[in-house]
Nucleolar protein 56 (Ptilonorhynchus violaceus), 456 residues
Amino acid sequence: GVLHEDLRLLLDTALPPKRKKVVLGVGDAKMGAAVLEELGVQCQTGGVVAELMRGIRLHFPALVRGLTAQSAAKAQLGLGHSYSRAKVKFNVHRVDNMIIQSISLLDQLDKDINTFSMRVREWYGYHFPELIKIVPENSMYCRVAKFIGNRRELSEESLEGLEEIVMDSAKAQAILEASRSSMGMDISPLDLINIESFSRRVISLSEYRKGLQEYLRSKMSQVAPSLSALIGEVVSVPGDSPCDPVAVEMMSEALKTRGNTPKYGLIFHSTFIGRAAAKNKGRISRYLANKCTIASRIDCFSEVPTSVFGDKLREQVEERLAFYETGEPPRKNLEVMKEAVVEANEVVAEVKRRQEKKEKKRKKREKRRLEALAAAAEEAAENSVMETEENDVGAKKKKKKKKQHQPEESEAEAEPEPEENGLEEEEEEEPLPKKKRKLVVEPEQEEEEEKKKKKK
């Protein structure tokens, strides 16, 4: 119902100052009503406007400069995706689907671990049947069976390891004594290897279940802290099946026996209903469902989710249980919610204060990092400038040295030794005698003269 700021700015810049005479053609009636309410401009939506809009939409890439059909198709695809995300049942940012899958996986893991543990008990019970009574817990039984292996090899040296597993010295001593007087059959090494391998798988599944439980607890504290504080993490979110199996089973049984229909479904797993008397189970289930609805709405619409409202709602359910048992009247909802609002405001202020401190620290770290980068860049620039200056100074010194050497060499060349020059000049001026001239004649000339003589 509020006109977008970008659209308002576009209309303010595009429309003429006198808007009373302007009639806009808008394809959507809601948008036309919003424009009329915000800007006071009349809008027409039906008739010719629909055909014009269809033509503009068809030839939009040709009408807008720089827009291609490919970019228009991408824009349409992005708009369709954003519209689909807005219509999704759960909020994408709050990862409700991840929590639902975690709940379903926890249920499946519980069933599988129970089944596999019973299989380990039966399998290893042929060899050591007395261990089931001493260690009744499933995961601990698998750890003990894997540690013991062949009961005949169990000795006093193994007591420390047993105590670490069962966390009880009396239990460890009882296991040792039972292994010495056990009625079980002997087991082959191959069967023992298979039992140990299967026990190892069950132990790994149990450890993974603990990690998944912690993951679910952290997710619920982020998404629905009030609801998880009210009834717990596992009961807070149903699985992906459309109906609760407990409710379906109870409904079918009631229809077969023509008895009363069940008054509770998924929240039957809550501890509040288990603590209530049989005649008060329906009342406490309706009351608990009402409080769960309030907690869910608070988690959905609160900007900073806190568990304050969930704790207060849990106190109300406890007071209602006490009222059914003792008759003590509980507090009114208005009083409890006023206290919750005051505490929630304090918690939200503290959370915002912490967030502001974290943001300030982050900005300081970012500023220091940028300053360090700038200082490093300045140092690099200074070093490069110094290197260039040193290179220039070195080149100038080399040039000066070359200039100093060049005149010395030229002077040495210009001043020849007088004795040598005088001898050379005397040698050049003295004419050779005729006999020596003949000796100096080249051999080629002699051959030519001999040829000439022969011809003559």
Q: What stands out?
A: The chain has three domains: 5-88, 98-223, 225-344. The CA atoms of residues 109 and 209 lie 7 Å apart.
